[in-house]
């Protein structure tokens, strides 16, 4: 899954990113950043830290099976 990061500017002038899959589905959305440089830094932080991230399930219900 390659996907892409899409940067947008909201009504308050903050920059946000979304990680979008090849099929167009939005997988993750970043917070609002005051500058485009800060937004790109947020993307780079996600890229560096996410490959080894684990899942911590804090719910009380079992995972759905399909």
Automatic annotation (TrEMBL):
Q: Point out the signal peptide segment.
A: none
Kindly give the InterPro entries that the UniProt entry links to this protein. Answer: DUF1508 (IPR010879), UPF0339_domain (IPR051141), YegP-like_sf (IPR036913)
Pfam families in the record: DUF1508 (PF07411)
Query: Residues in domain DUF1508?
Result: 10-57
Q: What is this protein called?
A: YegP family protein
């Amino acid at each position: 899954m390659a996907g892409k990061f899409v940067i947008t500017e909201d009504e308050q002038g903050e920059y946000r990113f979304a990680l979008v899959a090849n099929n167009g589905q939005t997988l993750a959305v970043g917070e609002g950043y005051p500058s485009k440089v800060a937004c790109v830094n947020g993307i780079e932080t996600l890229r560096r830290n996410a490959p080894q991230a684990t899942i911590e399930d804090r719910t009380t219900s079992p995972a759905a099976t399909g």
